[in-house]
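Known limitations

Structure tokens in this collection are predictions and should be treated as such. Users comparing against experimental data should check residue numbering before alignment. To illustrate the layout, the record for TBC1 domain family member 15-like is reproduced below. The input appears on top and the generated tokens appear beneath it.
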Amino acid sequence: MWRNPGAPVDSYYEVRPECTDVPKTKFRVKAGKTLSARKWQVAFSPEGHLDIGKTLGRIQRGGIHPSIRGEVWEFLLGCYDPKSAFDERDKIRQQQRVQHAVLKDECQIMFPLIGSGNLSLHQ
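Generated tokens:
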């Protein structure tokens, strides 16, 4: 898709057979308008502050390249402040990992099958 401007975006992503009633998208990728990894890196200052204005227009016009989609969405969803520095975001990531591990342990105490690979919805 990323090399074929004008192709429908839904031709890039596989649609599950049970979702055949989903209408086709009208969104088309515009040549050279996709937010690339290079353009994404250029949007950061040396301290790590993001100039979100440099990226939003490009995202609206052409989408986000799959290789950086997760990282970009962390900013779009408000997980990180665009004014935050690299080290601040690393600290937040570490805190979230610790919090996730604690929550996972609590879930496993309440429901021992969680994480065991033996969880079945049809018991």
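For this record: DSSP finds four helices and no strands in the chain. Residues 9-84 form one domain. Please report discrepancies through the issue tracker.
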